[in-house]
Design a protein that fits this description.
Blueprint lengths: L2 H11 L3 H10 L4 H10 L2 H7 L6 E9 L3 E9 L2 H4 L2 H17 L11 H17 L4 H19 L5 E2 L2 E5 H12 L4 E9 L4
Antiparallel strand pairs: 1-2, 2-5, 3-4
């Protein structure tokens, strides 16, 4: 299994890099079996629905101890789904997660290019200073960036109630379960005394 196999699987299914890698590992590198693994998790199904318009939904709020407040907008395709217990639970859990985990960005695509490049430079300089061979530096950069994404990007963060899945995996599982596209549109987090 190599990065090209992961890339090919991601393009075929729309799954995230870590999901594609895990599926290939579980399938012992067999591409077709990896697709089946992803389908079982509902990820491939979620991708098919991703292009559908999600203009209905809710704005969920969460206040923790009168010190931290969160507003998050989550959209779906119909008000029927927006009223389901599963959708409501997801939005409540999401607001609570944001309060606890303090993400800065919704996803990687929101990170300003100059900040991303700066982060890459810092990681590269640290790897070079530690004497790592040049052949390992790109893997080190990828690994450290993935860790950084899980700190600053909501969709990449491990869910506080189940660290074995990310917020994006949780969203995709809900898409598979409810049969509609679900989109985390935006969020804001306030903290007393915060900048």
């Amino acid at each position: 299994m190599n990065i090209e196999d992961i890339k090919k699987l991601r393009e075929a299914t729309g799954a995230g890099m870590m999901d594609a890698k895990a599926a290939l590992e579980k399938a012992n590198g067999d591409f077709d079996k990896a697709i089946i693994v992803l389908r079982k998790k509902g990820l491939a199904k979620a991708v098919k629905k991703a292009g559908r318009e999600a203009t209905v939904g809710v704005i969920e709020s969460y206040v923790h101890g009168n010190q931290i407040g969160v507003l998050v907008e989550v959209n779906c395709e119909t008000d029927f789904v927006a009223r389901t217990d599963d959708f409501k639970q997801f939005t409540r859990d999401l607001a609570m997660h944001i309060a606890a985990s303090s993400p800065i960005y919704l996803g990687v695509e929101e990170i300003p290019e100059d900040e991303l490049n700066s982060q890459k430079d810092v990681i590269k300089e640290a790897a070079q200073a530690s004497g790592k061979p040049d052949s390992h530096i790109s893997k080190i950069i990828d690994g450290k960036l993935a860790k950084w994404y899980s700190e600053v990007c909501l969709t990449h963060q491990p869910f506080i109630k189940d660290a074995d899945q990310t917020i994006e995996q949780l969203r995709q599982a809900l898409v598979g379960k409810l049969g509609e596209n679900i989109v985390i549109s935006r969020f804001v987090r306030f903290e007393v005394g915060g900048a």
